[in-house]
Design brief:
2 copies of one chain form a homodimer. In chain A, 36% of the residues lie in helices and 25% in strands. Chain A is an alpha/beta fold and 421 residues long. In chain A, the strands form 5 sheets. In chain A, strands 3-6-2-1-9-11-12-10 form an 8-stranded mixed β-sheet, with helices on both faces.
Chain lengths: 421, 421
């Protein structure tokens, strides 16, 4: 039996008919290597924006069911055109939408989760030597309601299909050349990683590396599907392979550095140090669907029996957060509330830091040497994050990138090969 | 139980978001009369042309399966937007594509015929007080392949739905105000008919009245569904009601006059007058999918044991027809073959002519008085067609329209009401 490769091309890669013909070439190239190929595509370029624009002209608040019906047409167009392009180049191909494949989701519109993927029809097409072109981003419920998967949906479709079909690999073609040690716009010496583990990728995605949506990464981790992020426009470049941490050949202590400017810090002062006080505050926030990222509680001031609670939320949630604090103010008995909008979260991520002490100390010393004050710290097994002043974020990222030997030339020495930048 | 009305709006009626909002008003107006309403819509304005253009950019001969997949997305957009527009105007509504409804067709792409329509889901939505917005033109096979119904497909969808759901009426909204006694562009005094029977409509459609596709009319006749053709832009105008011939209140001898310039005449001379000669000729044409319209065989010339066979085919089929005749020439033993491209078929149609003798004679005398030579004649129970020279077609239509009292004022006298022209 042949190996199955799932390829995913985003909206930019299929933005017009010329680009679709090029995608067909990349598909045929993969098939020529002796693989069975499934291609997942998004809607063409600005189609989704155009459809949303029309919906807004008609209704201020279009129902999510009808939005899903509307948006799902976008992939219907791109799968049919790509199948035609493949056939025109002599490659047998068939397009399938989510209903035809059976990409079963929960009955939630605009952000459904995949429950199950039927594989029998796809397999029978593959057995006939056909490339199967599948609509990404969409799903269907038991009673034939059309759903969409929300942000990063097509990536998730591709990875889930790869999992369900025990594919050898899922290739995510995109307009970047892979996953970088940090944002190349901030650090020109950022280097492309040859490999990264799912957990590192998850941490990097959460702190602002937009290459692959965390849901897609989690799905890949769940099914243990190797995912390659690579450039649509430079097919010879192998990009970055995302795999299980156990399968990685080399662990550097730090894999990547990222900064996230989307958060604001809230400090609630002099909160009564009673059991349950924090629970009241964070339950109230959770009820209103406000995601809290970092939480730091100071040591209690014994004499006053109070402490300070600091946490970060999305900047857009600040007004709502302050309203909620106002409502629970009497119950948590706080004094002042401070908001700091001008912060950045700078993080270092690396599965290799688990067994290596001193990484955190190196990070703090590096920031101190640069005269950067740390406002909050949080750590996980493979990540250390520091909140610093917004205008010092780039400097912090550059310093950490250099200290942890991620700059391009140094990575090249480690790998014995000069990576493309 | 409420009456069900099926409304159908074509591409021009839903060409942009403003027009879709207006369609929503027409739907709500029908529902306000106390009816359950199902709306069938086509793709928006030039969407289909745009999709075809992209397909042609990709492939000279895109497969019909992928074309169906591509084109079916057009109605997906319009049904979702119309459902949103209805909801925005306070009317509960739900969109359904062919898969969701279960508009089952044979497995033939680009011109499938409807086999069955499931009604349970539509009924349950209607029972909840919702308007059901259904995608026209498309169908689905048992194994979830997407099909399209070909020309006039949305009209056929609407009429078939009306039949399956025992609707009280199917309203076809279009950019004309109804069915006219003849083409108003040829005869300014053409009058709109209040009623016309299915069989008359079929005959008129076949001879060039493009208001409603014959397949839709046949479907209406089969299910005995009253169909009203009416203007999207003049909602107070009741248009033309197409009903069974038995239900019509008044039969004029002639209901309409039409001319058809699409045919050419072929005369095969001196064919051997043996049994089976005509069969050889017309079987050969049928095998190559060439539709023959009128066929006239002259009286056999006893002395020579030959006769002439004249028939008409679509002008575009002439070359192929001549090739086929060349192939069977020896078997039918003909001498010369003549082609006449400059002809027109002028027809009068009317269920009322069945019991009234002299209609044909009046037609022939009218043409003779105008100095118009008749080249071929064919008749059915409710139609008489004459082939005349192409450049005399308009004069023939005007003369017949006048003689059979179809000009606007005279019709007005008969009905006691002045129709809109």
């Amino acid at each position: 039996m042949k190996n199955i490769i799932v390829q995913k091309f985003g909206g930019t890669s299929v933005a017009d008919t010329e680009k679709i013909k090029n995608v067909a070439k990349a598909v045929i190239r993969e098939k020529a290597l002796g693989n069975d190929v499934i291609v997942v595509v998004s809607a063409m370029g600005h189609t989704t924006d155009y459809l949303i624009k029309m919906a807004k002209e008609i209704s201020d608040s279009p129902s999510s069911r009808e939005m899903d019906m509307l948006l799902s047409t976008g992939e219907g167009v791109s799968i049919a055109l790509l199948a035609m392009a493949l056939q025109a180049q002599g490659c047998p191909a068939v397009s399938m939408n989510a209903v035809q494949v059976g990409i079963m989701t929960e009955k939630v519109h605009s952000k459904a989760r995949i429950i199950d993927i039927k594989t029998d029809k796809i397999k029978s097409h593959l057995a006939k030597g056909e490339v199967v072109v599948v609509a990404g981003f969409q799903g269907v419920t038991d009673d034939l309601e059309i759903t969409t998967l929300g942000r990063g949906g097509s990536d998730t479709s591709a990875v889930a299909l790869a999992g369900a079909l025990h594919a050898k690999r899922c290739d995510i073609y995109t307009d970047v050349e892979g996953v970088y040690t940090t944002d190349p716009r901030t650090v020109p010496h950022a280097s492309r990683l040859d490999e990264i583990s799912y957990i590192e990728m998850l941490e990097l995605a959460r702190v602002g590396a937009n290459v692959l949506h965390p849901r897609a990464v989690e799905t890949a981790k769940q099914y243990n599907v190797p995912v390659r992020v690579r450039s649509t426009f430079k097919l010879d470049n192998l990009g970055t392979l995302i795999i299980g941490v156990d399968e990685m050949e080399l662990h550097r202590p730090v894999t990547g550095v990222a900064s996230d400017l989307s958060q604001a810090r809230v400090v609630v002062c002099d909160v009564k140090d009673n059991p349950g006080t924090a629970a009241i505050l964070f339950n109230s926030l959770a009820k209103e669907n406000i995601s809290v990222d970092m939480i730091i509680q100071s040591y209690a001031r014994k004499a006053l029996n109070t402490n300070d609670i600091a946490f970060t939320v999305e900047k857009g949630d600040i007004d709502k957060t302050l309203e909620i604090i106002q409502k629970v103010k009497d119950r948590i008995e706080c004094s002042n509330v401070f908001v700091d909008n001008k912060i950045a979260k700078v993080s270092i991520v690396g599965a290799g830091m688990i067994d290596r002490p001193g990484i955190a100390a190196t990070m703090f010393k590096t920031l101190a040497d640069l005269g950067i004050n740390i406002k909050m710290i949080s750590t996980s097994e493979i990540k250390i994050s520091c909140i610093v002043a917004e205008d010092q974020a780039d400097e912090a990222v550059k310093g950490l990138h250099r200290v942890f030997h991620l700059d391009c030339e140094e990575v090249a020495e480690v790998n014995g090969d000069l990576p493309d930048v």
